[in-house]
TrEMBL record:
<dbReference type="InterPro" id="IPR003591">
    <property type="entry name" value="Leu-rich_rpt_typical-subtyp"/>
</dbReference>
<keyword id="KW-0433">Leucine-rich repeat</keyword>
<dbReference type="InterPro" id="IPR032675">
    <property type="entry name" value="LRR_dom_sf"/>
</dbReference>
<dbReference type="InterPro" id="IPR055414">
    <property type="entry name" value="LRR_R13L4/SHOC2-like"/>
</dbReference>
<protein>
    <recommendedName>
        <fullName>Disease resistance R13L4/SHOC-2-like LRR domain-containing protein</fullName>
    </recommendedName>
</protein>
<dbReference type="Pfam" id="PF23598">
    <property type="entry name" value="LRR_14"/>
</dbReference>
<dbReference type="GO" id="GO:0005737">
    <property type="term" value="C:cytoplasm"/>
</dbReference>
<dbReference type="InterPro" id="IPR050216">
    <property type="entry name" value="LRR_domain-containing"/>
</dbReference>
<keyword id="KW-0677">Repeat</keyword>
<feature type="domain" description="Disease resistance R13L4/SHOC-2-like LRR">
    <location>
        <begin position="53"/>
        <end position="134"/>
    </location>
</feature>
Amino acid sequence: MIQQHELGSKRHNCLNELTMQSRLMTDDENKNGKKSDWFRLNLTGPVKNFSGTLCQLTYITTLVIKNNNLERLPAELGNLVNLVNLDASCNRLHSLPSTIGDLTELRALILNDNKIVNLPSEIGRLLNLRHFNLNDNPLSAEVSSMYGDGSDSNIRRMIRYYMDYFYLYS
């Protein structure tokens, strides 16, 4: 399906506009080690499914998938090992895949306005995390008490807790 937007009196086809400005690499280019200039992937709108195939774009550093209808993130998310910023706010996410812990370069994780109750223990592997937003989620009492007001000290304490838990029980 091709989405169109009205700009003034002209109609623009978003897919054609994207195709003219940017080009996805072919499988052969990817297999031969060609690197893309893309560092940011922004998918907003009424997206319901985030394909694990997009997680082959391992060179991206920023992933914005906010304001969608996503209920889950694929396990392949952990393949995005260069990811520094992840904004999945304003979706319908109930949980995070355990592979979130593979995103060890992650500095910002924005998950406000979802349906998240608990966090996987692997979140304790995100030692570079500096900004973590869980506001407006129905957090469990345990997570809520650690997250508190979302201050830096609470986030560091929560990451330490999950780090201890992860390494103790894994």
